[in-house]
Structure formats: structure tokens, C-alpha cells
Amino acid sequence: MGLFADFGKARDELEEKVEERTKELSQTYKKLAVAFESLKSTQDQLVESEKMAALGNLVAGVAHEINTPLGIAVTGASNLEHSAQLIKKAVESGKIRRTAFVNQCNSLIGSSDIILRNLERASELLRNFQRIAVDQSNDEKRTINFFKYLNDIISTLSSRVSEKNIKIFLSGDETLPLLTSPGTIAQIVTILIDNALTHAFKEIINGQIKISFKVQNEMLMLTVQDNGCGIEVGKIEKVFEPFYTTQRQKGSGLGLSILYNLVTQSLNGKVTCFSTVDESTQFVIALPLD
Question: Which of 74, 129, 221, 290 shows its CA 20 to 30 Å from the CA of 234?
């Protein structure tokens, strides 16, 4: 009887310990679940922040670009007014010659042409910005002229590019139609250009970014290559990891991670990074053609 009593007591103690341990594990699981949700929420916020930062750069670039044609248009309007005032005074005084009148009319026509061309340029920039900004908040697919769309994206970033004395070259079939999610394409290209501007040209002048594309084996092959400082071999495999960055003060380290998810999940494609230190970095994106 004493032995059975000891077994019973041991069993009760074991069950009690198991119950306590189960409660501890349950509490730990709940804490981990809360921590995971908090981390996921934080990551979502950072991703959204990264997207908004990219959109902010887009807005700043377009605002800078629009200032140039608007400034020229204002100058043209000023010349137009000046010429009109001269004609008015000459007519009122009754001392206007045919030659002077023709010259002033030519000046009016020239100023009008300058105003019209530059206002059309400003309007085109606004249309490009509106289309790309709307696309970035919309995942709907539509058919685009791929070359023209890439060129529009590049034009919205031209102020940042010119500030660093960087040139972007685009090559590919200028007539290629592509059924895709334009907003996703805009985010991908913007991230790659921004990444090159931030990391590639630390001590390099006259840097270049070459963007090219071609259709190969039912795949669209998009390549973005810079002639910058390159990436060390041990770091190449880390570039797509969340929060990985070599310049913490200039970014969250989410740009290329977002790009990887956009390519692999949103577009069902693949992205690969190749790099040689002090020579170049190349991102090759392979997207299936629908």
C-alpha cells in the first residue's frame, strides 16, 4: 500500500508540474503571438513608410522639374508683355514702321511659342506624375508601352539624378506592349534607382545607371546596372534581407526587401544581384509574360 501511495503522490505531483508547465507555455505562446503581431504591424508600418518616402521623392522630383518650364514660361510671358507694350506705344504715337511692327510681331510669336512649349512640358510632367502616383496605389493590370513607361518613371526622378551628376541610359524595344501592374513596375524601378543613388556612387563622379530589357524564352528580362563601387562578396546574399543596410542613417534597409517581395510575390518573377567591387552592381529581374 505504501508503494502505491508513493506512486499516486508522484503522479499527482507530475500532473501538477505538467499543468503548471502547460500554463507557462500557454502564457509564453500568447506573449509570442502578441510580439509577432506587434512586429508584423511595425514592419507593415515601415514598409508603408518606405513607400511614402519613395512617393515623397517622386513629388519632390516632379516639383523641381516643373519649376524649370514654368520659370521659362514666366520669362516668355514677361517678354510677350514687353513687346505688346512697345507695339501699343508705337501705335498710340502714330510712329510705327512696318519693319518695326513685323519685328515686334515676330517677338510676340516667339514668346508665345516658348510659353506654349514649356507649359506643355509642365503639363506632361504632371500627367506622368499623376499616372505613376495613382499606379503605385493601385495593383490593377493594364497594357502599357513598357519603354515609354520606364522613361516616364526616369523623368520623375531626374532632379535627384542630376543633383548627383548621374546619367541614366534606357535601351530596349520602344514598341513593346506589356500587360502588367504598372504601379508595381514603378515601385521596382524607383527602388533600384534610389538604391544606386544612395549606395553606388560614394566617391564616383560621372556615374551611370543603365536600364535595359528584352524578351527571352517567354520572359521579360529587366536589367538595372550601375558603374559604382560594387558590393563585397559576403554581403551580396544579404541585400534582400529586411532591415539590412550599409548606411543606416540614409534608409530603413527595407528597399530591396520590398523589391524582392514585389518581384517574387506580386509579379511571380525572380530577381538576382551580381556585383564586382569597384566596378559595377547589376540587378537582373525575370518576369513571366502573361
Answer: 221
